[in-house]
Every structure is written in C-alpha cells, then in structure tokens.
Amino acid sequence: MAARSTKRHILTWATQPMDVYVAALKDPVWRVRRQAAAALELLGDRQAVPPLVARLTDDDVRVRETVVRALGRLGGKRAIKPLVRVLGDSDHAVQAQALDALARLNALAQVHDPAAVDALIATLQGPSPLRPGAAAALGNIGAPRAIGPLVDALRRAAAEYPGLNMGTAYVVALGSVGLPALPALLDLILDEDSALRAYAALGLVYVSDDKRAIDALQSARHDRNLDVRRNAVWSLRQAADPTLQGRLTDR
After folding, report:
1. Which pTM was predicted?
2. Which of 15, 104, 184, 237 is deepest in the core (most CB within 10 A)?
C-alpha cells in the first residue's frame, strides 16, 4: 500500500523522467493512469503525444477526460485527428473536453472530416451544456450542412429559455458559416416568433455584404417587436463600420 501511495505522489508532482509517466499510462489502477496523463501535460514534452493518443480509448472515462485535456495543451497538429474522433465519445464530459481542446489548438477551421461534423451535429441534439460548444465548433468549421441542425437548435433554445438570450451561440454559428446560411437567416427574420426574428437580426450582420441582408435589416427596423428593432439597428450600425463587424459576442 505504501509503495502504491508513493507512486501516486510521484506521478502527481511530475518530478520523474517522461518514460516513467508513459509507462504508468498502462497501470492497472485508473488513478495512476489519470495522474500519469496529468504529469505528462505538466512536463509539456510533445514526444508524449503518441502514448497519450493511445489512451483515448481507455476504459475509464476519468482517464480519457484527462488525456484529452493533456492533448489539447501539448498535442499540436498531431493531436487534431485523434481529438476529432473523440467527438464521438460515449461520454459527454469527454466530448466537452475534446471541443475545448480543439478550440485551444485553434484547429476547428482545419477540420474537414465529415465524421467530425456528424459528431458535432449529434451533440447539438444532446444535453444542453454541450450544445453551444458544438455550435461554435460547427461555425468555425463552416459546414453548410450544419445549417438546418443549427436552426433547429436555435428554435429549441428560444423555446426552452425564453428571454435568456441562450440562442446567441447558434446564431453566431449560422453567421460564421457565411453566405450559405443567408436563406435560413432571411426565413428566421420573418418568423412568427419574435425571439427568432431578434436572433436573426443579429445573425445577419455576418452576411451584411449581401444586399438581401441589408434590405431585411432595414425592414426589421419597423418590426412590431422592440428587441427586433433594436437588434436590426445595431446590426446596421455594425455593417456600416467594417471594423465593428463580427463583434456580436461582445454585445
């Protein structure tokens, strides 16, 4: 018992050569494997990436979560494809870590894997805490086939959280997809639901280079709903000054 306790202490403080922690990734005790992954993260040596990638399929979700976090901090380009595969993990906490890791690596815009888009779209339909991160990832990827699922997620957020602006992540993602999302945004700004019209008025700023977006915003200035009118005016002001465009998240 004392030997096991000492081993855990050594692993926690990352005071040993990297090979010690790489070997410990295969320890039968999950706590040791998790602490080994954390120690490798602290050491910051990218030679640890391949053995860490090998533990992405660990039986213990706590180990997988720690491994994903470590890869997000030291993985570099070699970690991108393995982390994309993790988006399909059965555990939502691991998926969330993978989203965070890919964002930290600034890798989402480089992802062209249809399986990754599928996994992110599936996440949009999962637990609510994961949906905004999945939406942001899809926006960064710029996947046109995510437009329909993003609109569905926006509608769901507006219905589930009225008045709480919980749909912002989805409308930002739609706008980030660019011109392919314009028809969807034009439909939303005519929706019977004033909350959806207000969100659309914000999202149209991302595609304001297209005259149809400006025309829709000009019409929305006369909407019967105050929030829609305010958002339309705000977006038109952003469109008029290119240095302000895209600052919806700072609003």
Report:
1. 0.73
2. 184
Residue 80 lies in a domain: yes
Q: Answer yes or no: is 237 within a domain.
A: yes
Could you read off the pLDDT of 177-229 as tens digits, one per residue? 999 999 999 999 999 999 999 999 999 999 999 999 999 999 999 999 999 99
> What gap in Å lies between CA 23 and CA 137, rounded to an integer?
34
Q: How many Å apart are CA 24 and CA 242, to the nearest integer?
A: 53
177 and 83 within one domain: no
Domain that holds residue 225: 145-251
Residue 120 belongs to some domain of the structure: no
Q: Are 137 and 103 in contact (CB under 8 A)?
A: yes
- For residue 4 the two structure tokens come to 């096991």
Cα separation, 150 vs 135, in Å, equals 7
Locate 17 and state its tokens: 């050569």
Structural domains of the chain, count: 2
C-alpha pair distances (Å), 226 with each of 55, 111, 125, 235: 53, 39, 31, 14
The position carrying tokens 């998926």 is 95
Q: CA-CA distance, 198 to 194, in Å (whole number)?
A: 6
| Residue 103 shares a structural domain with residue 162 | no
Neighbours of 107 (CB within 10 A): 22
CATH assignment at residue 160: 1.25.10.10
Strands (E), the chain: none
